[in-house]
Structure formats: structure tokens, C-alpha cells
# Entry
Amino acid sequence: MTPAPVAVRLPGRPLTRSAAYARRGMHEFFDDIVPPPEGVDADADLLHERAYVVRVYRKSDQCLVVRGAVRDQKPPGLYIVGDPEPLTVHHMIIDLEVALPSLEITAARAVMEAHPYPTCPQIMGHYSNLVGLSIARGFTHKVRELFGGPRGCTHTTALLQAMGPAVVQSTWSMRVLAMRQAGGTGGPDLSTVEARQRAIGANLNSCHVWEEGGEHSQNILDGGPPVVPVWVHRRFGELGRDPNTWRNNDA
# Structure
């Protein structure tokens, strides 16, 4: 007889938590970021839901703790007739510790809370090979090289690729906190050419906006006024504040 699949649980997190949320509806929590497209019935026509969640925490000024999860669910009654709740078919979690400023992974653990086959968790130990890698340019390629195909779990590896950018985004948050603790406003130092080069170094050529020599990056290097992000304009407007004060005094 084939043994039943066994879920591996992280300490302090009950396995039944997803089921508790599911009773309130499998997709309602994501409707604000993934609203149903026109021409479909949000309930009757839904076939599958995949969700990625990545959270990054400051452990110290030299270390980030990162937890990411991927979860696949089928709508109630689709796979199991008469089942009133969504069916979770995949649920993987990865924990990382990442050193600053190198972004080197110093600890890694991957677990499965839901999986289809008894042998699925056997590959989880392989993800300890993340230790020593740097979450910088080339990380996605290295992840595919180490964990792609039969060398890993498809869903866990996809989750890893989603976690890298979240870590990079968190370095900006760390800079804001550091500058505010030092009595600054949280904006980057743009006072000299060298400071401006450092400020945009991680972003340079990362996308079309940050193309080297492009309008956006060159404006910063030339000492022009930094472009206030669209989300600052929107949120400051909602708060009744002047977005142009964002970098100056955080008014």
C-alpha cells in the first residue's frame, strides 16, 4: 500500500491555518491585486489559484530573515466532488538568512506543507546548497543551474526566483531606516558624483527605466532633481500632503 503523503511543518505554524482561511473563500483576499477579468464568472469559471508571498525581516543591521511561500489551490468541488472547501495541492515554504551588504545567503531551509507524492520532500535537503550564494545579478541563473529540472522541486525553485527581488527591494528599506536613525530623511545621499553612482549602482541596467545612459539614470548622475515615485504622489495626495516634500523633510 502506498503511504499517505506527509506534510513537513515549520515550528510555530499550524498546518490547518490555510483551511481556516479557505472557509472564507479561496480568492477573495487576492481580488484587490488580481481582480477577475471581464467576461468570466469569478466563482464558476475559476480553475486554479497560485499565490506567492514573500516577507523580509530585519534581524540586525547585518542580517535579513526572509520567508517565502507558494501555494496552489483548486476550487471547492473541482477535484473532490462535494468538497465545500478549496483543495491545496502544493504549499512550499523557504526560510533564508541573508548577510548585508553582500546579500550572501548564510542559512537556508525548505519545507513542504502540502505536496502530491510521498517522495516529494526527499529533495528539500538539496536546497541547503543555497548557502554561500549571493542574491545579486546572476542569482536566477544560478538557481536554475542548481535546482532546475530533476535537481529540485519545480514549485520550490519558482518560489526562490520570486524571493530574490524581494530581498533586493528590502535593501532600500534598510537604507531608509539607517538614514532616519542617523537623523536624515531616509533618502539616498546624492551630494556628489560618487554618491550618486553608488545610489543607482544596484539598479543600473536592471530594467528599461534604469538603462545606463537613459533619461532616468542620467538625470540622477547629472545631479538633477530625483523623480518622485508615482506611488508617493498618489499616497501624499490621499493624505493631503505635498509630495515634493517627501525627500526634503518627510513632512
Observations:
- The helical segments are 17-22, 139-147, 154-181, 193-201, 215-221, 230-239.
